Amino acid sequence: MRSTFCRIALGLWIVTIGVAGWFFVQGWTAKDADGRIQIVLAPGERDLILGEMRILLKAVHGLVTGLAGQDLDADRRQMEQAARSAGMAMAADVNPALMAKLPLPFKQMGMSIHQDMDALADGIVRKETQQQILQRLSSMTARCTTCHDMYRFGVDK
């Protein structure tokens, strides 16, 4: 009797871990009519993610504005602040329930952007050239466009 109970408990535990792992990788997604993957979120969760994307876009704008300035040395402080505003500190307080709803490739792209923003800020402090800064920024915006081509947000009804 006891070994049967242990086998059932172990089986349920394995199934639970498997289902949790599947949701961690797949997230709460559905195929969208336009061919992208729809990430299904509550309205507040969707607003939070879109707000973070606006912060990232403002950081890119701050970097481009600094690069277009006449005095790169004077504009470096602004560019460093812009990059740091979208770094890993921005992603520190993410709700685990929200993270569980996001598919793994989306999470990986998002975290890589935050890490690269911090690395870009460090490069600005080290006085990397405008060309090096633009190359880093181009690599990041390529991932942004890839992500926007792959995913869209839907609202859980």
What is the global morphology?
elongated
Q: Can you count the beta strands?
A: 3
Task: State the end-to-end distance.
Answer: 45 Å
Major sheet size, sense and barrel closure:
3 strands, mixed
Share of β-strand residues: 5-15%
| Main sheet strand line-up | 1-2-3
Question: Given the helix and strand composition, which structural class is it?
Answer: mainly alpha
Tally of helical runs: 6
Round the Cα radius of gyration to an integer and report it: 20 Å
Poorly predicted spans = none
Estimate the helix proportion, in percent: over 70%
Keywords:
157 residues; mainly alpha; 3-stranded mixed β-sheet; 6 helices
What would your notes on this structure say?
This protein is mostly helical. The chain is 73% helix and 8% strand. The protein has six helices and three strands; from the N terminus they run αββαααααβ. It has a three-stranded mixed beta sheet. Helix 3 runs antiparallel to helix 5. The longest helix has 26 residues. The chain is elongated and about 80 Å long.
Task: Give the SSE map.
Blueprint: H1 2-26, E1 29-31, E2 37-41, H2 43-68, H3 72-85, H4 96-101, H5 104-125, H6 130-150, E3 151-155
Parallel strand pairs: 2-3
Antiparallel strand pairs: 1-2
In short:
The protein is mainly alpha-helical and 157 residues long.
